[in-house]
User: What shape does this take?
Amino acid sequence: MSGGSVVAVGSGPSSMPRSLPPSYCIFDGLQWDSKRGLGRFAAQLHKHVQRMQWKPISFSIPRWRSGIGKVLLNELVEPVFREALTPAIAFYPHNVLPTVFLSHRSLRVLVLHDLLFLNGKNTGVGNRYRSLKLRGSLSRADVILTVSETSRAEILQHLNRECPVFVISNALPESFSNFNQTIKPKHSGAFRILHFGGNGPTKNTRNLLKAVQLLHQRGHLVHLELAAMFAKREIVATWQQEIRLPTHALTILPSLSDAELLEAYVRADAHCMPSTGEGFGIPVIEAARTSTLNVLSPLPVFREIVGNEAVFAASFEAEDIANSILTTMSTNTQDMVMRARQRSHNFLFDSIHSKQAALALQAIADLSPIRKGKVRE
Assistant: This one.
């Protein structure tokens, strides 16, 4: 998928549609430069739809990186193009729909990864705006796609009307799909923990730093490799000082290429994700694929993804996170790791396509008003 295009044109092996294929457009201008999270799912959605051999409609979009620029893309640029192009199906894979629709000839498919912005703790101006947008999008979508059964259940609880909700899970990237190492080489030194952090409360990164400090206080040699926070390293430094975590116990990783990301997982003795809220948890399946043990918070979505093949903390608090890491350090988890890797086969792209995406997309095509000769007023 090229940076300035909203649709990647092409075709591949396909689950053939049962009738005339619909036209479609994927309006992913908000995340065109993102290689993980929403951007990566948008790229996977392109591939899933291409395999259906539908008719793509594409246009070039401005590369606006600023928050205001992305708001203008969502509210003005994308709706104008949608009106001009009138695809049978319009996908919006970045959690929000435009506020204004001049007509309703296209089936509006909202990709909603989670409902975290409806959390009352998100009190900042930007988060309040996102919360309002999310509520409005929930009320206007014709169809909703989400990434887990857990998120689907939460979305259905918030809907006050009839709206189909389908699941297409995140799939492993190709570099992880082809990774074959099943046994980690032993090493001496500190127990290495990998964590993809964030300064938002749901990532629970600060409590993980506290947990590492607790383990150090008790004489356990552990080292935290913190990813996805290089741009926020000043915040991390402040937390580190407040918690009094030794400098040698923490490394803040720079932005990682796919190859470097794989190396980080291979290096780690455990991947820790103590989040208080997630719609999916991409690092969980990546860790499982690379034979890295997961240490997780007690979120239902993690049980959905990895079953019992992880060490689960009793709560989201630092003490319980530290205890779960200590359990990992003192237990033979090789069988658990192997079973988790086996479960990761479910998240290969071909598996997701055949078991979820082809079925969901065919159901969406059957709902398209243009395919049925209808125009919505």
In short: The chain has two domains: 23-171+349-367, 175-347.
